[in-house]
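hey all, quick one before standup. I had two proteins in the batch that finished overnight and I want to keep them in one place so we stop losing track of which output belongs to which input. First protein below, input sequence then structure tokens straight from the run.
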Amino acid sequence: MLLKDKICVITGAASSHSIGRATAILLAENGAKIAVLDVHGGVVDAAAALAEQYPASGCMALQCDITSQEECEAARDAVIARFGRVDALIHSAGIMKPAKYNEISPAEYELVMGVNLRGTFNIVTAFATTMAAQKSGSIVNVASVAAQRGGGLFGGAHYAASKGGVLSLTRTLARELGSANVRVNAICPSLIATDFVSEAMSADRLDELSTAIPLGRPGRPEEVAGACMFLASDLSTYMTGATLDVNGGIHIH
């Protein structure tokens, strides 16, 4: 199995149809020991379901608000106390608020930037410290095609800007952590059929947006999970500072 006995932490895994949950399932199927993290209490049920389906995963739940540096460090400490080390962090937690630039309130701007950018900094640096000390590790940040093409599908200017910041942060940390044998990469999905998307728009609107995608359909969470597993695994040991596009061809560059 590709990740046998690797210790992997996955954020944003509470929702049943999310990139985080799909990634947790795929990693567990491939032998990883996993911890799932989310701000929502549903992460406890998610961990219980994963542990029942994949007993060897030893899945643990971490309820954590990533906008809090202290909570991120506490989550890291809990993983180390349980498993002794951490081999991969797949960070997919985030928030999206569709709005035109002149409709974004200061409160909404702070919320989106706080979760998506400051939250990424908090959770990544917490685990990067441990990985640097053990001289190994892989960090995967889930950004968005919105960061590359300036929005245009779903989400507002604040969302695109926050995910652009995630890409810059990823590249900077890749440079800083390379000498410690810690890799930092990013994934840019496009329109993915998650719970959030299905709840935020009608099926007709989803079909309309899909006409702009060369593959003609939204992506599935498990299709993004496959890219996450590749970057977390030893198949990608000479990749750092890279961005993988999982976008159905909506942005070819």
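OK second protein, same deal, sequence then tokens:
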Amino acid sequence: MWKSCLAVPLLLAALLVPLEGRACATCACGDPTLTSMGTEQPFAGRLRLANQVRAWSLTTGQDAVDAVSLRELRMDLSVAYAPLPWLFLSATLPLQTRSLQQVSLARETAWGPGDMEVGAKVFVFRDRDFSADHLIGVLAGARLPTSPTVHDAEGRPLSLDAQLGTASLDPYLGLSYSTFRGDWSFLASATGYLPTRGREGFRAGASLRTTFAAQLQPGPRWAVRLAVDGRLEGPSDLRGAADPVGSGVLAFVSPDVLFSPVTDVVVELGVRVPVLNLLQGNVRQSPILQASLVYDL
């Protein structure tokens, strides 16, 4: 009998011990919008993992004269963590395979890690702490010189265009604005890059990259997104000699479909279609196919 009497208060005491609460990302931030990596609402302790795969090609020069074709398949492994409700820290490591073919059919192939990117997004304004309708963030970070120099079978370095990165330190600074209106959400961002000199004395041109996107989410599990992505890039130079090829303006229309098969998982499929090409040097950009998987831990 005394054992039974003792068991009751012990059971009650065990039930009253507070345990750590866990909630899905939607519950924690109060916003059910499906978001790709980098466009989410923050809350302290939010941790996101992402894997994005992209495939594209680029041709420079005149066909049958001096054309050079570049093809790339790239997988970006990303992690983002919010130690504070107003701060997101992120890192992205690209794994790439590249093939460069000359008009003579000579080919160079490289594969391995590219230049890693690290950054921070500081939310300087939100209209309310929970389920914000308006967010303004400042982005700052850099691409790091993590790509190794790739050599051919004879031990000679591949050409600069065949390398997996510039191996330069490229800082960037940007500004983003997001608003959420029921089934609709909108995003506008602009980011400027200022590359430094890297491998073989090459320095890419300073660039400005912009995104304007609208998203409609009719249901809790899927959404459609349409964006206009733009890039304005200055001329590059090699050991002080200016090279205008590839500089100018390039714009894409980017339709995407987002789907959440289970809680805290977002799958995104899309394509970036070039619609405006004002690049110097007869540069032709193919559509960019992309697929990504995002998981909130």
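Flagging for whoever picks this up: Residues 23-296 form a domain with the Porin fold (CATH 2.40.160.40). Confidence is low (pLDDT under 50) at residues 1-21.
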